Amino acid sequence: MDDLDTDVNHLQEEEEDDDDQRVSEWEAGLPNLHDLTPLTQPLIPHDLATAFSISPEPYRTILDVTRASDNTVSTLRCASCSFPPSNYSSNNAPPPPQLLADSTTIMLIDDDAVADARKSRRLDSVTEEADSALRADDSAEDQSSARALKRPRLVWTPQLHMRFVEVVSHLGLNNAVPKTIMQMMNVDGLTRENVASHLQKYRLYLKRQSGEGTVLSDQLFSSDPFPQHLRHQPPQPPVMPIGIHSSNGQPYNAFDSHHHFSMMQHQQQQRDWSSANN
DNA sequence: ACAGGAATAT
DNA sequence: TATATTCCTG
User: Fold this and answer.
1) Strand C: which of residues 179-238 in chain A lie with Cβ below 7 A?
2) I need a surface site. Which of A1, A8, A55, A146 has the fewest CB within 10 A?
């Protein structure tokens, strides 16, 4: 009997090891963040889809992905547990019709989370359009008191910043003003103020760069009046990776660091271009 | 009134 | 520090 027991245990351990290894391999084989773009860029622009009566259903938000991922992980982790995935165990949750205030929402920093448990507005990492249905989340139990609910602080994720840089470079610094940038970025929930604030910092960064002798791309100063008709169409394919080559043969410019990066590098990158003071 | 941008606040 | 808000200007 003991023999059998140990045999079984042994076998299980082996299986677990094998699983762990396979998981590791699987994880290692996962694409990097910057290799994955489809989610943030709808294959069919919303307007077009609407015009052709294509169901907007296929749109998925980063939220959906995150939740699905969490569920998967939870399910796997709790394979032997009796608990359902944590997402649904919080309260006697009514089956979320479409979208619920999801604590797993990423890319958000809710300043008031501590003081106030209100889940209010949601901003996802990058483009998320055609989600009028999805964004019906907020008022779940919107505190009647505060009619003016605060938006959570926007976090300029690498993706968002990339989009920002793309648009700015496309417009040229002369035409790159908050409103236009905001429109061309076409990121749901992104406000002019968000962009203005970011732009201010970005300009400081550019100033510092030029002060340090870095030659900036000519494209930055080109004055392409922005096309009004593109207003509802984000610069679909990343509009132009500027700065890989500069006109005077400079091997790099200030934007090189933004062409691609992983999450791991994010903080470093942030430090690189953010601290424009001193 | 509106938008941009620097200054300032959180 | 990063982002938001205020304040002034055109």
Assistant:
1) 193-194, 196-198, 200-201
2) A1
